[in-house]
Amino acid sequence: MPFVPARAQSPDDAEFHLDLHFRDTVSGRIDSLTGRAFGYDPRASDGYDSLFGEDADYPGGGSPGGNDFWFERPYPDSATRADIRHKPTTDSFAISYAPGISFENYPGSIFWDPAQIPAIIKGIWISAYEATTPLVDMKDTNIFTEPSGFEAALWGNLTITVFYNMQPHYISRAAVNGSSANGAGLITDATVYPNPMPSTGALDVTLGGAASLTVVGYDITGREVLRLSREGMGGENMLDLSSQLANIHGVVMLHIEAASGAENATKNVMFVRE
Q1: 142: three-class secondary structure by DSSP
Q2: Where in the chain are the domains?
């Protein structure tokens, strides 16, 4: 009987996985780092699953040349090259992953094959960790680029959200991250639309109660490009940005502050001005 070598355990064993690759666009080098992937499977846990090629404790940031991509596992607090999460038994759900990314040179990109994404998945959003506005939908494109070290720092850690059999929607990070100050329920959601934004657009801020709102926008150089303030009410507050857009181009970070008595909270939202 001929010898048949055992197949290595890998993300290929999962019901769904999406492979990720790197391109350092300064040097043009493509790093195909083995086993970088995320996905889901009914047999998986949200911890360490060797069946799917996950690492028990991968530190991240260790590849030659300084380019790397990894995932922070919720429990225990460790990192892994592949993150296959447990697939819920419900008919529709959203699963979020917490990736880390680093590049030796900028611009730097990760890319993938959208043909790996089944039709049942209606969207896969990459967004900044502290923002609800998606930077890209992985179903609609095959590349995500961090143009500069400044924007990488501005976006901070990333969140990838898979929408299974449901239309993608903005997920409030407040429920996941809490507030950056002592008013955890003061800003419950913040959305910019449309994104990218042409000559008109708005910021929609949902407050847990009445509060004073201050919104400051910064471009990729850190220069202040817009400032708004108003008294907000509990619930949805619409702030028209149209009059502020004439001299704004490219990526903008909106820093939102809400204050009510001794409580205060902040939230960041990214948008692109066309």
Answers
A1: coil
A2: 11-164, 179-273
How far does Cα 54 stand from its chain's mean position? 21
Contact (CB, 8 A) for 144 and 60: no
Residue 31 clears pLDDT 70, i.e. is over it: no
Is the distance from CB of 115 to CB of 94 less than 8 angstroms? no
Q: Which two tokens stand for residue 93?
A: 């759900």
Whole-angstrom CA distances from 104 to 70, 124, 143, 217 are 15, 26, 18, 28
* Rounded Cα distance, 84 and 72, in Å: 12
Q: What is the CA radius of gyration of the chain?
A: 20
- pTM to 2 decimals? 0.62
Q: Under a CB-based contact definition with an 8 Å cutoff, are residues 84 and 39 in contact?
A: yes
270 contacts 128 by C-beta, under 8 angstroms: yes
Per-residue pLDDT tens digits for 86-134: 998 888 888 889 888 888 778 888 889 999 999 999 999 998 866 666 8
- How far apart CA 257 and CA 190 sit, in angstroms, is 11
Distance CA 273, CA 234 (A): 28
Q: Is pLDDT above 60 for 63?
A: no
Q: Among candidates 189, 180, 232, which has minimal Cα distance to 211?
A: 232
Query: Are the C-beta atoms of 240 and 271 separated by less than 8 Å?
Result: no
Q: How far is CA 214 from CA 137, 187, 220, 229, 268, in A?
A: 29, 12, 20, 4, 12
Which fold would CATH assign to domain 179-273?
Immunoglobulin-like (2.60.40)
pLDDT tens-digit profile of 139-165? 999 999 888 887 787 787 888 989 999
Listed ranges 2-6, 23-27, 104-108; the one with the highest mean pLDDT: 104-108
Q: Extract the tokens encoding 112.
A: 């993938």
SS3 200: coil
